[in-house]
TrEMBL record:
It catalyses: ATP + protein L-histidine = ADP + protein N-phospho-L-histidine. Its EC number is 2.7.13.3. It is an enzyme of class 2 (transferase). This is histidine kinase. GO terms for molecular function: ATP binding; phosphorelay sensor kinase activity; protein dimerization activity. Keywords: ATP-binding, Kinase, Membrane, Nucleotide-binding, Phosphoprotein, Transferase, Transmembrane, Transmembrane helix, Two-component regulatory system. Pfam families: HATPase_c, HisKA_3, Sensor. It comes from Micromonospora matsumotoense.
Amino acid sequence: MTSDVPLHLASALRRRDYLVSRWPWRSLAYLATTLPIAGVLSIGLLVVGAPLMAVVNATRQGRPVELPILVFLTVVALTVLALAPVVSIAVAAIERWRLRLVDPRPLHRQRFTGLVARYRDAGAWREVGHTFLLGGLVPLAYWLLFLIGLLDLTLIASPWLVGDADPVIVVWTTVDTARQAIPYAAVGILGVPALVYLAGLLAAGQAAVARRLLDGAADSTALREVARSRARLVDAYEAERRRIERDVHDGAQPRLTSLTLQLGLARLDVPDDSPAARPLAVAHEQAKGLMITLRQIVQGIRPQHLTELGLAGAVRELAGAATIPVDVHADLGQPLPEVVETTAYFVVSEALGNVARHARAGRAEVRLTRSAGSLVVEIEDDGCGDADPARGSGLTGLADRVAAVDGRLLLSSPPGGPTLVRVELPCPR
């Protein structure tokens, strides 16, 4: 089965049913909850920024600025910068919580390792940048959206605003009667959907920037070198795995098949009452069992239906064999690298196994999407939630498998559910 449920606001905006979906209301809630946060931050920045701009303008115009004022502004600015990493802790925590309104995909959280370490951490300063963005640029964008909305409301209400002696200025012209205002009101009504889309775009853009800045993934020279070393090890492992698979498939399997056939023919030639009949029958059964075991080993190295059907088809086979209904949504486009395909397959297989064993779920959904140079695999269920890698649910091994190909695993599993496992695998086009 396939599912076309939008994953987040940005994807919902591209759908034809956006206006009649829940997403406009979610974007409105996101914008509305931004207002008090951005308002408080903008006031704080204005207290420092307005005098500072006044001093800059005075300097540009050649007017002298007294030294005490410069010292005071310098001290205040340095104090703001010093407190910013501390204030941004709360702002970032609230933003991560609010972000679920328009983008429920889990974020890699920034670990708190102490105040001193926070001043040296690049992720903390990205959170500071997000805080200044909320207090500086976001209010300007919201003010522009408010003016556009006010203009549209004026157009709609213009027939009722026109009085007998009081003309109304509508955009670039003046209307004196309600009849003259009706066309402008019609334009205003037609502009409401565009305004809804504009609000959605603003919310989606703000959410995208917030996700970019608040994602706690670290990046340093040492980590990049570790990643490159790990990539070399993975490539060597994949080459050795393919060699073993080829040797087993082309060498050991045919010889074992021939041996099994020979034993079967020998059983036909030996009478049932012969002393050699029973040992020969046991050897024949053991050879057949060994063939099954060897086939399972080859299947574990790389499943045959993954080679034949590709990732989407193989995942649908897994969904069909699951003990609960599983919807599969696949948007992959071009063929995937073999190592990415294999890793994604085993991720889905292990995750669906965890759902069957632990989640007590009624339904599950698998989403495979390829975008921005990565393959995103999401497995979501409506079970009891509260998944914890520390309790041996298989998530630790799954994270290790994903990390081996330079990917990452994110988990969202509040008590009571739902549980969402999101895996991002590098996949250059």
